[in-house]
Amino acid sequence: MKKKLVLVGNGMAGVNCIEQLLKLAPNRYDITIFGSEPHPNYNRILLSSVLAGDADMKDIVINERSWYAENGIALHTSHTVTGIDPVKKTVTTDKGLSTEYDELIIATGSNAFMLPVPGADKEGVIAFRDIKDCETMMDAAKQYKKAVVIGGGLLGLEAARGLLNLNMDVTVVHKHPFLMERQLDQTASILLRKELEGQGMRFLMSKNTEQILGKKRVGAIRFSDGTSEEADLVVMAIGIRPNIALARSTGITINQGIVVNDFMETNIPHIHAVGECAEHNGVAYGLVAPLYEQGAVIAKRLSGVETDGYHGSIVSTKLKVSGVDVFSAGVYADRPDTRSVRVQDDFAGIYKKAVIQDGKVIGAVLFGDIGDGSRLFKMIRTGEDVTGREREVLLPASGAPAKSGADLVAEMPDDEVVCGCNGVTKGAIVSAIKEKGCSSIGEIKACTKASASCGGCKPLVGDVLTYVLGADGVKTVKEGMCGCTTLGRDEVVEAIRDMHLTTSKEVMNVLGWTNEEGCSKCRPALNYYLGMAWPDEHEDERESRFVNERNHANIQKDGTYSVVPRMYGGVTTPEDLKKIADIALKYNVPLVKMTGGQRIDLLGVKKEDLPGMWADLDMPSGYAYGKTLRTVKTCVGETFCRFGTQDAMGMGIKLEKKFERLSAPAKVKMAVSGCPRNCAEATIKDFGVVAIDGGWELYVGGNGGTKLRGCDLLTKVKTEDEVIEWSGAYVQYYRETGKYNERTSEWVERVGLDTIKAALEKKEDRLALMERIEHALSLTKDPWKEIIEKRELNETFVPMIEETPASAG
Amino acid sequence: MTMTMKRIHIGNVGDIAEKRARVVRIGELEIAIFKMTGGELKAIENRCPHKGGKLSEGIVCDHHVFCPLHDWKISLRDGLAQAPDEGCVTTFPIEIDAASGELWLSLPEESTIAS
To answer: What's the CATH number where B9 sits?
Structure first.
């Protein structure tokens, strides 16, 4: 007869413990799980991603109902266990169900702490704890505008970011003068606040909530200083309290949480506790990694595997708010007995601090760049002695090669957790590589779930791969262009040129594509390479173009489009502005906005209205949607500016007219500044021109978007004609050697600035490149005109038929 | 309850290019009519199960379409989202008159909005 194991609480900690137990002793117990929520086990940490719109509810389910069935587990959702009889060894639920146990695990987690102020029970006042709270917030966002989050900690800020994404006005109220004061020092906290204010959050600091006002629903909050704040929705995210009601009624010893020993046992035999409800050595943890370590101890004990028990955890936290990288671990505040290494770069928005005591790193705070997080966390956990080389903790030693990620992985014990979200250890990843043949991060993700949730551990998973498979050709993972081929960009382009392939179909046939018609990754890429290699012979494959380049407008999330007419060099006229205004009125354009590239965006246009609007505008397409030259941003230059040394506007207009409509591996942005003050921000563009007295400096490979990168100086020239010659040669060299979708910033780093300089150095080489780009340019046509003029093109913009309810009846 | 079907004429096979789609709107319902390589036609609801992306604007590869918003891969044969994603799009029967190339779409009566 199998023993009976009952788990009270169907959350991450408890179910993970069962998963670990099943691995060690698959058939030892008859398992029953009770959960109060109606859902199977889901990843509570990712609720903030659901709220932020980055994940769906179904994306965050960890164990589907089928998993319980496959493992013979009886799952009772929507059952709250209300009583334990430790003598008869039974548990009873609120629905009257009673079950016997031989071993019992309590994993009741925690409850959100609600401020006990008058009015806290009003409609629209909620916590941020479960799927139901998430749904309430999403519903509220549809009807209401003003949200107040009480609590400026990790959870509160994640909730606030989610509400911003739902288009609510969000104010965060915090009783402390600094945000995330339990994880960050004041410097990092101030940087964080600035960043979040930039994203649109408002903050009310050092405020104590006294009362929640309103009739049935919340209307405002009043603070102890007499001020108040309007609110249609109040989210309390001030902390959690271990859920100990059940344990207390059973007579189990409790303090803050359920008191457990090193083996996670309570004072009553055969009753264990794990997770946020448990208190070990005076600490109740609210983060996921320690919970997995605790679960592992119970799993070992229940399966008869030896363990020396649980000895507490050092925890690290990361804020999951897009655009803000924050990491904190261990002791983060300075104390009289500690000294710190600090790096602060206001230009790059980076702050790093490592707190050192007696030659050991005992804590760290990182802001803006958290790449050192796992390395520092490891130093904290291992207590490595860094005496005499404290500086190198944050700054690489000059000369000495820094330890590689793979070296650090080699030193990790097998049971160290690599993926904190899913509790995947280094050992589990190593065996997936060795036994199941995983050879890429993607395969490891599919096999073990490592990096499947927040993705923060991806670099570390990559290091484990390098550690096992070796970096020097033992087995390097070959990444093809896409899943249809193992060939990379260079091999494919070489084949296109050598074998004179002129259609995608030929390429896929000849090179043995595994999917006959390719996929959404390779089809547009091949179409580009073919057009670049054979501009005359290759016929553009409209069906292989991404929607924006096929419809010559930018698709928005609701299926409408945006229209951006060309405005050369950002210079316009009253007549053109009037025309744009009239057309915006005529077509009821819901939003008119200035773009970052100095032109006007008409947003929210229905697809069927596009050809009509283009015809009425009678202006060239601004190509604000394509992998091509977008804009050439300019300052006024010497025309008006007292500092200007050259005609920046004229130069910009010339460049834009020269290179518009040209296809490229990725979008290309340019700018021209009339003096070194560089008001057009030319040094973060794909190609930037900065006027100096008597000439121009040419900059390449900059990016102000996804990954900030300042330009490299390519060369200095004297005349406008030379600017055109160098820019043309540079863009053509990029067209011929860049990977599809690779911006110049990535391309410059991949091929190297010296290679580019060498390719453009000789005048005859530049002229040859220039000749090829001129030819490609001579074949381009304005796409809007083309669609207006060709019936077979413009009719695809309207439905085949449209029946309104009236005509259908 | 029996589902009565309504047949509607929506155009000619020549109106749609290969590996492309056109849209048919019936009241609130939007249907994408795809023409695959070789001329076979498929009709599915023009709404990705993920975030409602317009599938008619996706890239068609064999009998699949990739949603333009987040690249979900949907089978045009049965409307199923391909792993690792999960979901399903409604499919509709479509007929071609062999002689004239005229296209007829069958819709359940209730979705054509009772009047």
So the answer is: 2.102.10.10
Q: Does A791 touch chain B (CB under 8 A)?
A: no
Per-residue confidence (pLDDT) for residue A113, from 0 to 100: 86
Residue located via tokens 């999951």: A320
Name B5's bridge partners.
Answer: B108
CATH domain A125-238 topology = FAD/NAD(P)-binding domain (3.50.50)
**Residue B24, pLDDT above cutoff 90:** yes
CA atoms within 13 A on the CB side of A223: 16
**Does A800 contact chain B (CB < 8 Å)?**
yes
Mean pLDDT of A53-60: 76
Partners of residue A520 in chain B, C-beta under 8 Å: 58-59, 61, 66, 71, 73
**Measured between alpha carbons, how far is residue A154 from residues A148, A446, B102 in Å?**
15, 29, 60
Binding residues of A: 635, 641, 675, 679
Does an H or E element contain A673, and which? strand A668-673
**What are the φ/ψ torsions at residue A339 (nearest 5 degrees)?**
-130, 160
Residue A341 DSSP one-character state = E
Residue A550 forms contact with B (CB below 8 Å): yes
The amino acid sitting at A665 is P
Yes or no: is domain A627-778 CATH 3.30.413.10?
Answer: yes
Tokens encoding A429: 């990843």
**Interface contacts A/B by beta carbons within 8 Å:** 92
What was the pLDDT predicted at A443?
79
Domain extent listing, chain A: 3-110+242-303, 125-238, 489-545, 548-626, 627-778
Is the pLDDT at A767 greater than 90? The verdict is: yes
Q: Among A157-171, A454-468, A605-619, A723-737, where is mean pLDDT lowest?
A: A454-468
Q: Which residue has the higher pLDDT, A373 or B109?
A: A373
Give the C-alpha separation, B22 to B19, whole Å.
11
Distance between CA B63 and CA B41 in Å, rounded?
10
Q: Count CB-CB contacts under 10 A for residue B62.
A: 16
In which band, very low, low, confident or very high, does the pLDDT at A403 lie, cut at 50, 70 and 90? low
ipTM: 0.89
CATH homologous superfamily of domain A548-626? Sulfite Reductase Hemoprotein;Domain 2 (3.90.480.10)
Q: Which CATH architecture has domain A3-110+242-303?
A: 3-Layer(bba) Sandwich (3.50)
**Chain A nearest-CA residue for B25:** A802
3-state helix, strand, coil in chain A (%, to 5): 35, 25, 40
- Find the radius of gyration of the CA atoms of chain B: 14
| A233 against A806, higher pLDDT | A233
Across the interface, do B54 and A555 touch by the CB < 8 Å criterion? yes
Check pLDDT > 70 for residue A809.
no
Nearest CA in chain B to A541: B19
Total domain count, chain B: 1
Q: Print the domain residue range for B56.
A: 5-112
**Three-state DSSP state, A652:** helix
Query: What is the distance between the alpha carbons of residues A101 and A123, in angstroms, rounded to a whole number?
Result: 40
Strand positions, DSSP E, A572-637: 591-594, 600-605, 629-634
Average pLDDT in the A460-467 region? Answer: 84
Percentage of chain B modeled with pLDDT above 90: 63
Residue from the list B24, B25, B57 with its beta carbon closest to the beta carbon of A547: B57
pLDDT in tens, A214-262: 999 999 999 999 999 999 999 999 888 899 999 999 999 999 899 999 9
Task: Flag whether the pTM goes above 0.90.
Answer: no
State residue A805 phi and psi, 5-degree precision: -50, -40
Decide if A378 touches B, using CB distance below 8 A: no
pLDDT tens-digit series, residues A546-570: 999 999 999 988 889 999 999 999 9
